[in-house]
Design brief:
Order of helices and strands: EEEEEEEEEEEEEEEEEEEEEEEEEEH
Strand order of the largest sheet: 1-22-19-24-17-14-13
Low-confidence stretches: none
Structural class: mainly beta
Strand content: over 45%
Helix content: under 10%
């Protein structure tokens, strides 16, 4: 018998500055929601021409970037380069060390590039693994329709209504579903038992939960679910004028301490100090950072 997941909390992701000239709505990684293993941070970013995320390091985590609008270039100190466009994703494993830049395309109409970036913790035994990338193009993402076509789900990672995603995108097990519900539509989505899960609302008004626990949530909110249960229910009321859209994300919690200093995410204070030293001395994974500057980072408008 399926057990519905209760809502633990709902809160607005408040817009703030990040990087150089970028605007982000951060929900995970704020005083409202910390230590939600395996998730470290969730940013809903909007980056206009002349802004971006120039050269910066990482160690000890994976990042998942989902582009909702526009295009983003990526370049790192190992010579890897690429572009993700609307609907594409990039899964980056920082492992023992990476230095890279993420810069937006200059859209012809001057509009901002918009997307989500999720930071996921790495299991302690993989903190010092080799860096790697997995790109997932929009056309490669399977999808499924439910409730007589009133629900459309992109199965980025995980399973939904009998449809499986592309495999082996990240080391830490994570499900990511992009859900769109038309007025009058309803979805019941299973999540793995014991995993931490949340929804982030992108558009419209969506009702999460059932009966007396039902909660209507507007856009730009994080809906955090209790760990108990295996079903998340969501619907858009018939009289709504617009669809509801949200990402539903769940991950397997890691039984380990998290010590974070900016882009370095490890398991002890000593490991964080070592990461800072390695970065400064270009050692233990950061050798190629010595003298490196990205080409795309040079495009910054000063």
């Amino acid at each position: 018998m399926s057990i519905p997941r209760a809502i633990r909390q709902v809160f607005l992701a408040v817009e703030q500055s990040e990087g150089v000239g970028a605007r982000v709505r951060r929900s995970i990684g704020t005083p409202k929601l910390r230590n939600f293993s395996p998730f470290l941070m969730l940013d809903h970013f909007s980056v206009s021409p002349g802004a971006g995320f120039p050269d910066h390091p990482h160690r000890g985590q994976e990042t998942v970037t989902y582009l909702l609008k526009g295009a983003f270039d990526h370049e790192d100190f190992a010579g890897n380069k690429g572009t993700i466009e609307t609907g594409d994703l990039q899964f980056m494993t920082a492992g023992k060390g990476i230095m890279h830049a993420e810069m937006p395309h200059q859209n012809a109409d001057g509009s901002a590039n918009v997307g989500l970036q999720l930071w996921v913790d790495l299991p302690k035994e993989l903190k010092m693994c080799e860096p790697r990338y997995r790109d997932l193009k929009a056309a490669e993402i399977p999808s499924v329709d439910a409730d007589e076509g009133k629900v459309h789900i992109k199965v980025i990672s995980g399973q939904s209504y009998g449809v499986d995603s592309v495999r082996d995108l990240a080391y830490t097990p994570v499900w990511i579903l992009d859900v769109n519900i038309k007025p009058g539509g309803k979805v019941q989505q299973k999540l793995p038992t014991g995993w931490n899960g949340f929804a982030y609302t992108l558009e419209g008004n969506t009702v999460f939960g059932n009966g007396k626990d039902a909660t209507k949530v507007a856009q730009y909110h994080n809906v955090v679910f209790e760990q108990n249960g295996d079903i998340v229910s969501a619907e858009v009321e018939k009289d709504e004028k617009a669809d509801g859209r949200f990402v539903l994300i769940a991950g397997q919690p890691l039984d380990q301490k998290v010590v974070q200093y900016g882009p370095f995410v490890l398991n002890s204070q000593e490991q964080v100090y070592q990461a800072m030293l390695d970065y400064q001395k270009h050692a233990n994974g950061f050798e190629r950072a010595a003298g490196w500057k990205s080409e795309i980072g040079k495009s910054m408008v000063h």
